[in-house]
Amino acid sequence: MSTENLLTVQFNLNYETSNKAPQPVTIPQDKEMSLAQKPIPERPGYRFAGWYKDPECTQEWLFGAKTPEFMKPPVEWMAVKESMTLYARWAAPVSIRTAQELDAIRKDLYGWYVLDSDIDLSGLGPWQPIGKYEPDYEYADAEWWVHAFKGRLDGNGHTISGLKIEGNHPFGQCGLFGAIANGEVHDLVISQPVFNVTGAIMYLGAVSGMMRQDRGRHSILEGICIKGINACVEIDRKAQTTYVSVAALIAGVWDGEIRGCQADGTIRVKAANQAGGMLFVGGLAGESYSQTDSCTAHVEIKLEYDREKAEGEHTSYIGGLQAGSTYIKDSTSEGSISLSGDNGKGQVVAGGLAGSERYGIVSGNTSHTSIQADGLRNLQVGSLIGEYNFQFAVFGMMQGITETILKNNKADAPFPICGSGSVPFFEYNGMKMTYTVENCQ
Length: 441
Description:
By secondary structure, the chain is mainly beta. Helices cover 3% and strands 49% of the residues. The strands form three sheets. It has a 28-stranded mixed β-sheet that branches. Strands 11-15-18-21-24-29-34 form a seven-stranded parallel β-sheet, with no helix packed on it. A four-stranded mixed β-sheet has the order 2-1-4-3, with no helix packed on it. It starts with 5 loop residues before the first strand and ends with a strand.
């Protein structure tokens, strides 16, 4: 390609400093800049909040695209049409002392917020989650989750109480946050959160409905305690299809880290839906592709099925710590799983630690979770994990992950370590995943 078609993008740190700005990027005209080309500068006492076309930081420039590499051409992307300069935005810490100030976070989803007192949300009425997930985000880079929380919240060990969400949520994310993208929450207590909701497509967790992380960025939940969650969820009986994930901390995680978090309380789900779909229920996390380290869940999970005449296939993944999992290290599940009723067509998969292990390493964990079931037609149970999931293992293999390992784990329940038994390997389209169990009892 001739140099006539190459454009230069300069970066300006946008404050007086002797530090050098990131190196310019040369890009072909009318092409997007990839996530790998996005500089992430640092400034003491500030949080980097993106690159903008103007020094006042009113026009954000998004890197990457609305779809991942394997689905190019992208649905939506920002084309570089001329040489230009992008300016860094910096967020200084903002003190939060009242419920109104916490609620106002939604006015700037890129900010850095620090709790300096306990917060009671009950005076605000039913809570509206901060930030949200849009239906067209499914295959989008987190960079493009433009309505999600992309900032940082430091709890400083303070407590948020009075979090309550009720009613019908046909497509909802229920939690303090609706969605988090390349964002962080640290050192926070959420006490006695209450959820009493009905829906067909739903992600429910006290901290957030869902979280997404781009490669090279950070989405982190650290040092968070969920005390006494009381979640009652009814899956919409008349919905044509359903996809529901429920957990005490967070319902859906697509890359990211969960470190040193704990939860206790009760989660009740009534599944009387007659159509097909999926259900994820976890003590700490729901559908989770994450690095989970040093976490604990002591949650009573109760599922009641009423699908005797259901026509659609419905699959449930239930785990004492996580419903679906990848990497779990040095964590503990201590609660209970109670399953009752007729689940009709489809399968229920339950594990003391995790329901469905997709790929990765599960090591140094302990499960004291008790599991009871009555009346179900098609049930698969493991004392540690319910199954190896080959469908989702493909996503791991596409990232170059070739091993799934269970090692140095302990589980009390009188079931096999893995409900799907011993599996040496899985092959698909020239890719191979091996499965190993080491020192598990």
